[in-house]
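task queued by scheduler; priority normal; single chain, no ligands, no partner chains; default sampling; output format set to structure tokens
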Amino acid sequence: MSKKRAESRSRYYIRYQAAKRGWNLQHPARGGDCLEEQEILNHITDIGLGLDRPDFLFCLNGLPAVVIEAKNTATKIDEAINDAIQYAETINSNSNYKIKIAVGAAGEENYGFVVEVRYLKGKKWQSLSSNGYEITTIPSKREADTALLADDATTKVEVPSVVEFIDAAIELSRILRLAKVEAPLRPKVIGALTLAMYQGDVTTSHDQALNSINSLLEDAINEAVDLTPEKKIRLAEALRLLGADYDRLSAHVAKIVHLLRGLNIRAVLQTDTDFLGLFYEAFLRYGYDNNALGIVFTPRHITKFCADLVSVRPTDKVIDIACGTGGFLVAAFDKMMASAHGPKAILKVKKSLFGFDTNPTIWALATLNMFFRGDGKTHIENQSCFEEEAKNSVEESFTRAFLNPPFSQEGEPERDFIDASMRALEPEGLFATVVKAGIFADDDNSAWRKEFTRNHTVLGMISLPEDLFYPTAAPTSILIAKAHVSHTNDAKVFMARIWNDGFEKLKGRRVHIEGSQLPSTVDAFHRSLLGDDIHESNAITIDSNLVSDGNEWSPQQWLPQPIGTKGTLPFFCRMNGGNHGWQT
């Protein structure tokens, strides 16, 4: 490949990454932020540069702010960043402009791209960092603006967008297929590399890559002061990349490391973002055959929604008996920590989250998720919630329970997981679960529904968008219930339909849109608990006797089906029967 062609691809990478990170690649004369090499002198005649110019100059508020230099191989990253700094210093010396951010980007397709960012603090160029870790991709427009305001070589890292997670997940899947890593082993690779990169710099040479990953992840595990010795051993065993299954991976480690650096992995892991959960959600949805694990992962905005519905408090004790990568536990932990005041309250929260998962790799990922968040004891067990030891240890011990049971798992129907969750709750404990909708409507589960209301109270039902788990076709609903208090016929039950959860399916992806109904639905549900009679476009309260005796619990029975939109407002078809219908 010619040098010119390779550098052209490096420039393409810069354009692509910059656009994803919020930069407008249009010329400033057309309202954009970007000037390329040949445009710089024509647009800013007093920039102070000679015939040599950087590959890109990005502007903020119309003024030059970021210099970017590209090179054609990753080994030339030092040359790229040094050249970028030299261009910035030339501008600073020969003009009235002040460039404080220099970016070097180097690489090509086979080995990936590496980015380094420097900030001019006083008279010295320093690495631009966030939360104590370097920014390792092209700074977003907001990160650059924040850095210039702080003027101390720090910024506030932005969490990668959904698009960035999806693109990285698809590329990672492609790399792992090339490395001939079998599908069930691929999640383990992500967990191992994430923990290794959290701990330090991975050596990417072919002969040292796997040893470096294993050494770093073991160091991270051994340094965890709150994990028991037994869990440290099991966690290392679950994540260690050993054996013929991973030998072919060595040649691809450099590219994977560069890919994860492109997500600012080390800086983002220091935030309250569920990095692992978000990345796995994208990986398993768009870059992976999720039938290989037989598990569906709850989208992270839905786990937060459930934590908000049951108003998790710092004093609660929380369990998820089929926790997957820990999404519900992460959402609960974040909500609890946000209102925990004082060291004793914080310590209590860190000891109050429990989970179970039978898959060793998934258990390891859930443990990692809580580890990254500072959860003290990480009470997540690699065993079935139905084992006698587990049942005895959790019965009526918890105040909040969450669940997304395995969908249609032979021999363990969803209702068994729901019943086990209810047994884990103390009287009046609250439960939220995301389940395939059929269990709440079909005749086969009528007897189970009747028995449930004999023992517990149905507080609410919320149907979710049909494409929520895309590409898995799984219409789902949320059940909110109160444990060990019989359902009475003199109360109300909240019913809601969510058709806008803040995302929509577009070109094979679920992408962010405005108008999410989740916040207003939380508010309406809480008002219903206080006795308000709810009658809104997507939510109502009905008499509680209507869900007794094995009757359907489906919101679809009581709320209209949106059939289109006018502007941002849905319009509806008339329902059959009842007095709650709307019409177009």
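post-processing summary
- The longest strand covers residues 425-436.
- The radius of gyration is 26 Å.
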